[in-house]
Amino acid sequence: MQPFTTLTSTPAPLKVINVDTDMIIPKQYLKTIKRTGLGTALFAEMRYKEDGSENPDFVLNQPAYRKSEILVAGDNFGCGSSREHAPWALLDFGIRCVISTSFADIFYNNCFKNGILPIVVSPEDLEKLFDDADRGSNATLTVDLEKQEIKGPDGGTVKFDLDPFRKHCLINGLDDIGLTMEKAPKIQAFEEKLAKREWA
After folding, report:
1. 6-174, CATH topology level
2. pTM higher than 0.90
């Protein structure tokens, strides 16, 4: 998993509340178990018209936000059914950080397991960040995970809270497999000890 330390990007404003996982990645794209290739299907029903052409009104289709790595979104992001394809699609598109006032629990947990930083901020701070995002390519946000702060284009700073263990995992690029591999020497020693006991 790619480590997360600092990230600077033009933030994309998605002023929609209750964005559920079916909006993030519609059900017809769930046939694959690969983590790659899902970026083109991210927000498919909002990004594309019925004829398959791009919807120019959707934020991620607008020139200023096509390469955004930070998404500023409305309340209760990632609600609905639990599907790990949702963070996979975000990551494959290039989104490494989602900022909202609240997240659905399962989506929130899945983000950390896939190298995405979900940040919870107050409604007041979210409005400030929406204002920054509305400025398009004229404004960037910098997310500093070590300091747990978001720096705005005008020098303002928004602090955020984060569980220390999740912070450690993101900074060091550790998913569940990576955490297990950190204990590989102890696991091997246990297995060797167990094998000797079986033959004794």
Report:
1. Aconitase; domain 4 (3.20.19)
2. no
